[in-house]
Specification:
The chain is built from eight helices and no strands. With 197 residues, it is mainly alpha-helical. It has one domain. The two termini are 42 Å apart. This is Transmembrane protein 72. Keywords: Membrane, Transmembrane, Transmembrane helix.
Length: 197
């Protein structure tokens, strides 16, 4: 049957695949949450509360933060120069991502729970924001795990990768090439020596 290592690799790849698809779910769910928030803001404004305008502004901010990926894609297509000052300004917007969005959305959800203005939809908007905040925490954890897996420690006595096996090029070449590899005498190298390299 399957070994334990193969089963663990299968579970890891299945989890990684699911977390990769979670980003798309979050994008759709974030836009939906912003629409619900905007609806709550409109309803509160119709009932003659000024606070509804602030909720609509919060909804627009959430919507903007949830479509930053599309705006980034648009900027990359339209502006070919990566040193354009627009990208420097846009980096400030992109700084607010992952766990930072989670903190902001948690604060926004508290607004809906503390001042519901008698609307049952306020509590739903607050719950949607809390759920979106939780999803961003999950994505932050995924990003953290992915970064840590890039720096795996290899136990002593095992070869890590093919390019790390040799400390020095002379270990690989041995005594087969006696000519120095400077640019001045590169033409003196033998074709067979280059192919062996």
């Amino acid at each position: 049957m399957y070994s334990t290592k193969e089963m663990n690799d299968y579970k890891y790849s299945k989890t990684a695949s699911m977390l990769g698809k979670l980003v798309h779910v979050i994008r759709i769910f974030g836009v939906f949450t912003a629409i619900v928030m905007f609806g709550v803001g409109v309803d509160i404004t119709i009932h003659h509360h000024e606070f509804g305008l602030y909720i609509m502004l919060m909804a627009l901010l959430v919507f903007f933060l949830e479509i930053t990926w599309a705006i980034t894609l648009f900027l990359n297509v339209c502006i070919k120069n990566e040193f354009n000052p627009i990208f420097n300004c846009w980096e400030i917007v992109l700084w607010l991502r992952l766990w930072k969005k989670s903190l902001l959305y948690t604060v926004f959800s508290l607004v809906f729970f503390l001042w519901p203005h008698g609307l049952w939809l306020s509590n739903i908007a607050g719950a949607l924001l809390l759920w979106l905040s939780f999803l961003y925490i999950v994505i932050t954890f995924k990003d953290f795990v992915h970064k840590r897996s890039d720096f795996a420690i290899v136990p002593k006595g095992q070869a890590s990768t093919s390019y790390d096996q040799y400390d020095d090029i002379t270990d690989l070449l041995g005594d087969s090439i006696h000519v120095s590899l400077s640019a001045d005498n590169l033409s003196e190298l033998d074709q067979d020596g280059i192919l062996e390299l």
